[in-house]
Amino acid sequence: MTVVTNNKWIGQRTIRPDGMDKVTGRAQFAADTNMPGMIWGKVLRSPHAHARIKSINTAKAEALPGVKAVVTARDIVDFPIEKGAVMLGIQDMRWMCRNVMAREKALFPGHPIAAVAATTEAIAAEACKLIEVDYEVLPFVIEIEDAIKSDAPILHEFNKFEGKPSNIAGRLEHKKGDIADGFKKADIVIERSFTTRPVHQGYIEPHACLISVAPDGKTTIWSSSQGQFMVRAMTAHLTGIPQSDIRAIPAEIGGGFGGKTIVYLEPLATLLAKKSGRPVKMVMTREEVMRATGPTSGSKSTVKIGATKDGKIVAAHGTFYLQAGALPGSPIRGAAGCSFTPYDIPNLLSEGYDVCSNRSKVAAYRAPGAPIGAYAVECVLDEVAEALKMDPLDFRLKNAAKEGTKAAHGPTFPRIGYIETVEAAKASDHYKAPLGKLQGRGVASGFWFNAGGESSAQVNITEDGNVVVTTGHPDIGGSRAGIANICAELLGIDYRRVSVIIGDTQTIGFSNLTGGSRVLFASSIVVTQSTEQIIKTLRERAAKIWEIDPEAVKWEDGAAHPVSPNAGQFPPLTLKDLAEKAPAMGGPIGAGVQLNTTGADGGFGTHICDVEVDVDLGIARVTRYTAVQDVGRAIHPGYVEGQLQGGVAQGIGWALNEEYIYTRDGKVDNPGFLDYRMPVCSDLPMIDCIMVEVPNPKHPQGVKGVGEVPLVPVMAAVANAIYNALGKRFYALPMSPPKVLEVIDAPETRQAAE
Fold it and tell me: Which of 12, 373, 405, 711 is a Cys-bridge partner for 647, taking CB atoms 3.0 to 4.6 Å apart?
């Protein structure tokens, strides 16, 4: 592969290709799509947290004038539990068929029971009210500590743990060394327990789709998702329509953060469209998004760390219970696999438990599980450092993972940049700045695996010598701008001559999800290989014109040149020149590559957070924040900074305010942005970024994924800063004003503050 070192466009803050359309309102999102003859779909949702569905009568709804179709679980393809897992990526279709529509039982308030298509939204909503459902209401359980009790209501009778019916759906373990022996060698051991609440990804755009099914069964889906191929595959599995008959067209996406990596509406709208013979549009309300789509897990964790008096960690044990929601599948891999990874710990046991409860099934959220685990581990690390009277960054440096360190989850690290992030944080002006009264500073580190996976790209030269690149990944993090920079760099042309588009499932080869911090890493590999093939073709055509050997031709600065005067004295042939000659020289110029990419390196970051606490109101305000991260190679620094800043903003919300609040009957009590308190601009400081570049040697441009690491350390950094300000630790999130006031009003804290 071509490794570019002398760059013109890579590393530049080029104008984002989607910027103009988004700021002028021209960008088309899923809800903007309409068709002649279109009708509207609405979903009837369970009012109960847990109930057996004894019968459903849709006759009255079907008789309502304007109603064109009704679907229930009978219309969804069933994947029987007893036949075993049917995996599509990381999703088990046994759970997905029961998530998009309740089958045997309703498992949370908001669980879909039926769907209606009618000529107007109002008629569809009215028809939902006419559907008669006979429920047998059952006991329910929301919180982890209740769900794992021996006498807890069991969501799934088929689920067994240690031979008994249980809400624990699975266990994951990473082990290294002997922790019992390790803790014997420790001079200091600290063990703490932590809880976090479920939080939503908070994407601004609700789930939406428009689906048309032709008389011959050919189906077209317009939707907002993190993967049109995922939408095609899941819809095919759940409706029985062959994938070859489904065309999934990606719209612009108004945020996802992992929450749009599964389907909710598309199978329902497809079946309604098939039954009615009309295109069906469905758009969730914000309340539906909050009640019925996947937030991330709430958690209950215990972390124990032992160190010698000279500051060396000798043993660690983490136990992480994560809520899966109504169906199995919480991100225990991220919690158990990432939490200790920044450190070289000889004796380690990290356990994750997947716990079902009567709330909506979780979906991925930016480094799924890793922020939860890091919150617990990084807070205990701070306590150990304090007990040893060590600077918290020095303590991390002393125990830092580096080249040759074997991680508990398997790999032995190559050259990594974690130490550089800690050193950069320690050398920053921020870390040295003075603090005032009731102000505090905290630090934390974090890791995410990153990924490669299947990607496809097609690069075509237009007749006028410009470039069109088609990839198969929805752009939620700046991949189009990065790809334009890379392609322009390789071809030696202005980046404005490169147009990058996202193909649908019938115009580009299979491409896996936009997720796992994989897209720029993977898509740039296939774009690079495609572009190299084009350069080879251009050199061959120039050689044919000059009647010399192709090896005597080089491609440089957007044109073909003889490699030396010995090859001949010929004027350069530009990309435009060769494009114009294409019809007479063999035809159109283009190349495509499909590849299961490998070689992704994990990402590391270290954060510094300053807070100031208002002891009268209990408000902890973040006053300064610096995110340091090993970004591999920053292809587009502006977008990289945006990823870092966005992750920090979400983490501050998770740390200080965001949480799902449940009523006594198991319903979400704050299903909207008025009561679900996400941070806004006035809640945040300017967020500084320090990009450490340790290029990935297995990638042609040195790329590492950057999108998920920035969320991982944030909650711990904020918690450690609040401790530094108040002298009191918080072991539960969010650290919202009532909870902070409760601690402040404790006599010893109030006296110290005054």
Answer: 711
